[in-house]
Amino acid sequence: MENQNQFSRRKFIKNSAGVAVALSLPTIIPASAFGSNDRVRVAVLGVNGRGQSHISGFSNLSNVELATLCDPDNVVLQKRAQEYEKKSGKKVGTEQDLRKVFDDKSIDVVSIAMPNHWHALATIWACQAGKDVYVEKPGSHNFNEGQKIIEAAKKYKRIVQHGVQLRSSEAMKEAVKHLRDGLIGDVYMARGLVFKWRPSVGDKGTEPVPEGLNYDLWTGPAEMKPFSRNYVHYNWHWHWNYGNGDIGNQGIHETDLCMWGLGVDTFPEKITSGGGKFLWDDCQETPEVLSSTYIYPKEKKIIEFEVRPWMTNEEGGTGIGNIFYGSEGYMVVKGYDFYETFLGRDRKPGPTRKAGGDHFKNFIDAVVARDTSIQNGPVETVHLSSGLAHLGNIAYRTGRALTFDPKAEKFVNDKEANALLSRKYRAPFTMPESV
């Protein structure tokens, strides 16, 4: 893994655009060749939550046709189809089983907004079927899945865009350029902040599977558990079987910017995490409060990451964002599209900007051009930004400081921690040993 992946990451970090490396041709369906008047046919997988933004984002593009909506919950699925048809005046296909979408040769692109535990397998199956992929953050549910996704994208020459949309923000591109150009001096530390209002999720117990939901498909590669509204449809985020807590939810945007802004193209060597549940007596398994530290001793850089769930102050005027510290000043990033800088000991205001971008358009542009070099959220970010969150969660779950080997991508002499780099998959939704 070291030779190809480490090279790809280095070039990706430097260019902030990714790497175009073609290893082999697709073995199932040849790549589409788009002319100037061709429309890219898109299927959206998972339409209950974030998938609604996918529907809207792709519908706004003139060279895209929204062809199919897919969700294992037929009640939600039909509701979204009706909403789309009422708004657009166009019919859209519906399908509960994502495998049938992959079998449809008329589909060029799949956009994945399913729960986290489905992201990697759906992406790999799509690549094998000759589809290009937009996959929501985190692109993986566990660390090792990121490696598999990169392998599949390269092998089948697919465009895989990770849903870290701040990378398409013109303000964020400018902010990172300032960091590279030395505006705040030697940038040695990044903080990622996720201070979100998260009330108790309660405990709804178990009940029969509701009509219209294919619970077997919803569960997919995860361990099968009795049906509960504790999981379906949103609160799966707070259960290890399906989600990754808020560092692996909202936090992926911030882990991504931490690494991008610091210019680190590998994983840390020292990781500590502490936190827990302090507020609510509910069914949530992931920590309400989490503080993680990632140390890069060779690069002399450090990442701090903090999740808070309730009443809190902001830091530097931001609660969802990042702060970068340098030898000559600091930079505050608020949300996805605004930054401001403060220079010198007297904190003199420096450059600032607010400007967004269109991550869906950037992806479609890359699909049409068959050019990974123009991507803002290329496949490498799936492993880097998601992987950092996974390492922090593993440190929390083991309850101790961990030493990680970034080249081997394994913990050093720690069988328990290494076991958490992957998961057991439920047949027939198993991760292939070789993609």
What does this structure look like?
Helix 9 (about 250-260) crosses helix 11 (about 380-400). About 30% of the residues lie in helices and about 20% in strands. It folds into two domains: about 1-165 and about 360-380, Rossmann fold (3-Layer(aba) Sandwich); about 170-200 and about 235-355 and about 390-415, Dihydrodipicolinate Reductase, domain 2 (2-Layer Sandwich), CATH 3.30.360. The chain is globular, with a radius of gyration of 21 Å. A hairpin with a 2-residue loop joins strand 11 (about 320-325) and strand 12. The longest helix has 20 residues, at about 380-400. The chain has twelve helices and 16 strands. The chain has helices spanning about 1-15, 50-60, 75-90, 100-105, 115-130, 145-155, 170-180, 215-220, 250-260, 360-370, 380-400, 415-420, and strands spanning about 40-45, 65-70, 95, 110, 130-135, 160, 185-195, 270-275, 290-295, 300-310, 320-325, 330-335, 340-345, 350-355, 400-405, 410. InterPro entries: Gfo/Idh/MocA-like_OxRdtase_N (IPR000683), Gfo/Idh/MocA_oxidrdct_glycsds (IPR050463), Gfo/Idh/MocA_OxRdtase_bact_C (IPR043906), NAD(P)-bd_dom_sf (IPR036291), TAT_signal (IPR006311). This is Gfo/Idh/MocA family oxidoreductase.
